[in-house]
């Protein structure tokens, strides 16, 4: 017997790519269970599928930085902390964070195939004996609109958004006088492709870093939140600094203000997404 749940959850996370650096991603997750009927004439109660499997995915991958095992030589575990320092092309990235902020994925790179294998390995041991196998599909949102991949960290968030490198694949909508402007949408999607959005108030000098070393041409960030102390050094070419927090509400407001500067006589509407199916709208 086969049981399926489409769109069980959306995994919002970032992964390290050996070509692109830190890439924010949002994957819609579909689940298929293969097994025998249990005493309730079910493969597994839908409520348990939605709660138990989603909880494992949230704990193991969601809002984390996924790192391919091929880059493990550039990483270090010390006293419950995780540190990395690597060069990708002509850019530099170093991070120090509590170990729960990262996830190691077997392989040369993080992709759907390797990530599915990882998720199956951590989910199947928790399923009842009548469930014999598990299929997982990871898919981006189907869209013809413009989108960008971004990473960030929200130090004021009490949940997992505080992790200094996690991210999203996000659509962007911009209107002038209630007319959609694909040119402006593409302009910002291109500008922020594979970007790290940093908050100005989290900037520190390179000399203030405690666990990692910044290179010339890096921004340095650090903050303490409820999960611990986080540090990041990243090439300026991979980063954009916002004069506000990088919540989706603030991103929408910032973009609206930037577009308004370019079009002072127009009514501006920005629809910013945080992953799939959620976001904020701002006007200027």
Automatic annotation (TrEMBL):
It comes from the Bacteria. Pathway: Purine metabolism; 7-cyano-7-deazaguanine biosynthesis. InterPro entries: 6-PTP_synth/QueD, 6-PTP_synth/QueD_sf. Its EC number is 4.1.2.50. It catalyses: 7,8-dihydroneopterin 3'-triphosphate + H2O = 6-carboxy-5,6,7,8-tetrahydropterin + triphosphate + acetaldehyde + 2 H(+). GO terms for molecular function: 6-carboxytetrahydropterin synthase activity. It is an enzyme of class 4 (lyase). Belongs to the PTPS family. QueD subfamily. This is 6-carboxy-5,6,7,8-tetrahydropterin synthase.
